[in-house]
Amino acid sequence: MMKKADFYSFLKAIPKAEIHLHIEAVISKNSIKKLYFKKNGTEFTEAAIKKLFSYNDLNGFITAFLKVQDLFTSVDDFDLVFSDLQQYITDNGVSYAEVFFAPSAFIKKGFAYGDIMQNFSKNIAAIKKETGVDVRVLVDVSRTFGLENAEKNLDMLLANKIPEVIGIGLGGAESKGPCKDFGPVFERARKNGLKTVAHAGEDVDAWSIWDALDVLHSARIGHGITAIQDEKLMTRLKDEAIPLEVAPTSNVFTKKYVPSFDKHPIRAFYDKGLMVTVNTDDPLFFKVSLLDEYWNLYTKLNFTKAEIKQLVLNSFNSTFLSDAEKKAWTDKVEAAWK
After folding, report:
1. Beta carbons within 10 angstroms of residue 334's beta carbon
2. Which is the catalytic residue, given 24, 202, 245, 293?
3. Pairwise pLDDT comparison (255 vs 138), residue with the higher score
């Protein structure tokens, strides 16, 4: 058994991909304080910050997430987010990231989608120049605000295409926006060459995952923890090698299906041969880093070092990189591991 400091040091040096990460939730508390002061002209007190981050279910978390989004007053506020993302990438030894961005709240505030994308291009190029890390974006069309809003988000994406945006995702309050309602958006996205992924099986039962596969034809499943309820579904996920973007601490935190880390189904998924990946979802909101997640698997769910390596390999093999790029990264993982 490795000591914690040794484990973190070792794993930080291994190339890793993260594919389920909400960009607004990589923001630091210091940046939130800056946004608050800019908007309100007063300090954001520690008591107020503590209250903001006090929630005990998925909907409470989403409310807090929207409150953070509401602190933004101009497009250049995203510079703070990308600065924090760069720090997160560096701290965790992330070599490639596919991140979610939810534009709905910002568009409602009057931000121009095209201006946001220009800012993203600039900041992603800066991260690449300074760290060598490629960041790609999946626009969360958001189930929270309904089908019409999701259609508008796709319209804006298609009218303002940038190479850094590779697809769409479906996030938000799963119980309020079933996957089956968004089939037309996903079909149109694919016809326009976009990748499609969906959060499913995070806050409702396994039928949501079936709908994500059969209606949305989602290439990956965000969370997918309720697949554990359905042997037939797990067999299909395994046979079709459909990646699960698992975020263990997030699932424990929202308490809907996972009462404690040692009860998380990721162990069973891995043992059954499913394509499992490890992610953080919302690092600030769930007080977790990617290195923390791997450490928790190592210490609380008895993942061996060899199994940890396989999870890291899975993360690259589940990206939307080309096959050649995936092989280049997995070769680097193998070399670094030795």
Report:
1. 14
2. 202
3. 138
